[in-house]
Amino acid sequence: MNLLSLTLFGRQLSPESIHFLFFISLGLLAVLWVVFAWKRGDKLATTIAFAAAGLTLFYLTSPYVTDSGRWWVAGAILLVGFIQLWRNRDRVWKPLLLATGVIISLLAVSLTSNSVNLYFFEKFLGKGIAFYFLGCLAWLVIQVVMPRTRGKQQASQAAGLCVIVSLVMLIVAVTWWREAVDGNALPDSPVATTGREVSALSQSPFGDRRHGIFAIGLINDPKPREAGSPDGAGFITNYTARGPGSGLKGDNDSKFPLILSLQMADGALINFEGISSVRQAFRWPEGEPDNHLRGLRHGDPVVVWADPDELVAGTDGTRTPALKATRVIAYGDLDAFRREFLGDLVKTSRVFGWIAVTCMFLSAIPLCFSIRTLFRHRRAAGGKVR
Questions:
Q1: What span, in angstroms and rounded, lies between the C-alpha atoms of 115 and 121?
Q2: Per-residue confidence (pLDDT) for residue 313, from 0 to 100
């Protein structure tokens, strides 16, 4: 049955109208669910929470959701989470569970967006998890250790622990913010189209190429196969995409050679290190007949984001341009790479940059509690050491 052939009041339904009616129906079902729960005497707040979570999940996975809608959803999650945290601020474990739920919900909302750059998202996520565990440690010190301190010496020890945790949190947040700033500067990285340019960039000051360069050329197979070889459907390098979300799974069905070759515009053939994860493969073409197979064939145009280097022959000292520490291999031209990959990367970096700035201010909270604890014990002791 084709839903687009349905009519309502003599008018043919468009996809947007069907989407609207679907959510109206879901909303009515949610209201009925809440009413029945209220009549039965169930916990109304829990029922409303589950109904709102179900509606939000359907909305975020619909084809008509926009990034602005995701921002509204993220704002609502933060508001509800902050209210619940404030109401339970005197408890020990419930705020930690609430904070964990809020963070997981925000990550799930962000991952439903196609504009999130998974390569940088993964890098930022590691530092975010480190900051979160440090925050949990600081919370336990503030809520469990500090109230049980007796005397100025114990108070000084607890305060010192809080100061150390606060300092480490600040270092993680600053490092996080610095990487976000570097992400915003990536579109201005040098571009190399010839072997001579790669050699020149490898000898340039490190500050001019510390984010790497973008080398443009045609990918080559260092070990050419015979025509009609079934290995990887003719791909030099490939991986298997298992459908939505496969970019977050393992690389068990991938084939990533350690060394690949790039033919530049001047005919130079330079070697570069291969990638090790599907998050480093961008817009690779699909294979035929298996459209879940993605890979690169001999002669495909690519953009390689890597560090410039030179190989020195041990016999005569001949220098050959090369690329090392490959971050990404993108299929296509530089304009598409800048517009799609770098555009999403800059958006992701800006979002995480503001999160890092917020974390800098949050890292001062344990320091403030340590100062308050010291003053309280000093006043209790009447200014004398006990």
A1: 11
A2: 62
